[in-house]
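Recap from last week: sequence in, structure out.
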Amino acid sequence: MPYPSANLASTDSKLSPASDALVSVLSVGDWHEHEFASAITEVSSKESWQSVADIPTAIDFLRSNAPPELILLAQSTPGEYLQRDANQLSELAPLSRIIVIAGTWCEGEMRTGSPPHGTLRLYWYEFAAWWRAAQQNLTDGICPPWSLPLDHPQAGRYLAAAPSTPQQPLGTIVVDAEDFSVFESLSAALANTGINSTWAGHGDSANLPPDVAAGIWDGGQLSKKELTRLTNFCDRVRNQGGKVVALLDFPRIEHVEQIRAAGASAVFGKPYIVDEIIAELR
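Predicted structure tokens:
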């Protein structure tokens, strides 16, 4: 099921490297690790980030340098960052927003662990779409998500609403979902933004409507059968000039690679934010 729509600023395409807004960032941890490296593949400004290996080095950096706008913590395992770590960073850089980018092994930490309070938290597969939407907000002169108050567990996950601007009609979105109720949920959310959608049926995308603009494919853990279904769907939608985004339960890095090889342009984990999907489709 999707998160409630947050009226994110829609983008007409992925931000090009030249359009990445300059935001001062201190990155902490191993950002060269596979899933974290994948999370920031499209972030051109990462070359200007200050990078350190761990919290003690980050503390030393903050004691002798101007505080950055963002502190990004790559968290590989639950409990890697403690509350005292967040407190120390906040004491040295009270105006910096601390953002934890959680890896695959941290998916249950919100239920069974004690993640630091006063931080913004994203999973690694959420970061790219969130970053693009945040960059678009900056371009549009809107408050970025890291400047919003942290008043609930998903604070900062949603973005401030953009001014209402006319959008080119997107055409029909075709949804390939095994469960019709999944299509109904997506269709209702898309209809709220004036976008028409149609159901491809139980993986049967042989007869797509002529005005298909893009496709949404819904899957689970990307079984072999699902991957075949996705590949066929991507082929048919792309033959009509459209792009496809895929929805998965807790994507793994190998899933992202397989989905891109199958022809989809982006992967979203569930629960997803409808406006981020629309931004990607546009």
